[in-house]
Amino acid sequence: MHRLINRYGVxxxxxxVLQADQSSGTVKPQARAIQRNNAAxxxxxxxxxxxxxxxxxxxxxxxxxxxxxxxxxATIGGTSDxxxxxxxxxxxxxxxxxxxxxxxxxxxxTGAIHLRSNVNLYVSxxxxxxxxxxxxxxxxxVYTRFEGTECMNYSPLIYAFEQENIAVTGxxxxxxxxxxxxxxxxNRKGANGAxxxxxxxxxxxxxxxxxxxxxxxxxxxxxxxxxxxxxxxxRSRNVLIEGVRIINSPMWEIHPVLSTNVTVRGVxxxxxxxxxxxxxxxxxxxxxxxxxxxxxxxDCIAIKSGRDNDGRRVGVAAENIIVRNxxxxxxxxxxxxxxxxxxxxxxxxxxxxHMDSPNLDRALRFKDNARRGGVIENVFMRNVEIGRVAxxxxxxxxxxxxxxxxxxxxxxxxxxxSNVRSASSPxxxxxxxxxxxxxxxxxxxxxxxxxxxxxxxxxxxxxVSFRNVNIEPAQKTNSRSTRTTWP
Length: 487
Hints:
13% helix, 36 strands, mainly beta
């Protein structure tokens, strides 16, 4: 067995004692005893667990064999469909025992790409894979998740199902071709405020998930309006996404689902459409996201584990996720957990990141409600530099969407921000919970927050503590009885 990581995470994995009672938001008696462990010791063990996690995350390696797509019929120029040439090159590489499928410099038009085990799709410097905006190019439907609910839908642009040792690498460009004239239009409201095209399809999918309809019968695709993700390894192992530039995504960009040993490194994401999250590890374990740049239309990184009853049915947590040395520009949040987190999330480590944009709403964000539920625990952030954010450094929002209407009380506990510094924000904290939900053991240590403009918001919060923390207002005034000297 692995050694204990902390009072919650690994004990849950190995002993099975920390199982949330989702009808009450409480935990079983055995877990209560565990929770009474010394808090100071837990803080030390938290970060000390990261080297053990990192030791398990090993990017796949590939044989030194190249399969150039132009040798299989692909033509440069972006006018001829190269989907079949890519399929043939991938199949040849897989059958040969693995290697690189090379996209040489130039523009290549394609539909869905399905990776096979031991294949590294290498997009060369100066190469662009431009994906068709024709939905028919992403049929037949595949087994996927849409916003946390499993279904049969359009293939992601780059997809792998139950494969191992797979990669998308290189310094070229992946262009999803999404725009308001095609994929993004599905999510835009119509004239006079009419529902977006996708709304009826989403309601149908959520109903299937709530009623437990078998996934094989949750068929979407043609005639419906659920946009595909860009890159989605599903139930896969040993995954590497490295170096590529991603633009114009239909929705979420990098979405590992139920996958293990995932490295996302040096990726440059610049796409501002609706739901354009940068990287969404969902129900995945041992994930490293490092040296990436996120400039997005939604959350930069959003960690998830399934939606509502369908997330509880699958019941797989997102865990052991490390984010380091990343730059976050525009986005709804820098690092976000939720809102589809019904399968729980634990052991998240964020360090040495830089976040700064007037269009970045929050640095660390938790979003959940009483329909989603889930336990989020053991989240640590350190050595993060923040310029401007538009709402708060830390947001915990349990009134997200349906709020308190539901029986599954969310839990956030054991969260620490240490050596986090910011230059400008409306507030440090925006914490909005409701009776019965749990916000507990949130700690700020050795932090400095400057340019804070207004009062903190805290409703139904539990234990929130500060140690060696400076909060400086944007308007530096003296107290009524003591002259204050500001640095």
